[in-house]
Please model this.
Amino acid sequence: MPSRHLRRYQAPEWWPISTKEAVWVVRPSPGPHPLAKSLPLALLVRDVLRYAKTLREARYVIGKGGLIKVDGRVRRDYKYPPVGLMDVVEIIPTNEIYRMVPHPTKFLWPVPISQEEARYKLCRVENKTMVKGGQIQLNLHDGRNIQLPYEEGSKYDTLDSVLIDINENKIVDHVKLELGSLGGLIVDGKNVGYYGKITEIIQTYRKRESTVKIVTSDGKEVRTIMDYLFAVGREKPPLITIMLQQAQSQ
Model:
């Protein structure tokens, strides 16, 4: 049974904390994102966005203040089942909105987005299952499930991406992870944060372990496995903001 506590030296290396300031750090509650690839809401507010100086202040902002929304809903748990890939975080008093995206050195980092874009979230299809009534259920990377009629659900494959209207929890667009796509974003591994056109796929017995080569806008070739790739668009620009430079140019 996992401990309810987390020592700082045991926390993921990319978390923005010092291992020498204290012994303990916030351990996130169980949720859809794994601990190694996500960040507790308290650390996001205190150590990344700098809206609090201490954990006590962060707990007040999140809990009693109710000033933080994640994916359109107010979250009052400072250990909120960790904030992860593609989650939309809104600071209510300032109307600032961020999306959590891959970063080459910080692994996962918020980039500012517009109010209009905040209602949409890109999710990856992790699994498909048949459910009662002959419908297909899409199991997405952020823990949500969407049921569709068989004919409609059949057009989605695992590792494809779907653009979700988070207010209505419905699919508004679909991006396939395939050769030639201009929207390959690496979300894990040593090349995390790179984005480019998919130019080669070497298939293996397990789809997720297939080798993929992407070419970035500056001509750099990067290889990864398909499980580390996230389809974010069919052409330029991607369906959502995925990097800081892109946000600054809007």
Summary: Residues 183-238 form a domain with the SH3 type barrels. fold (CATH 2.30.30.30).
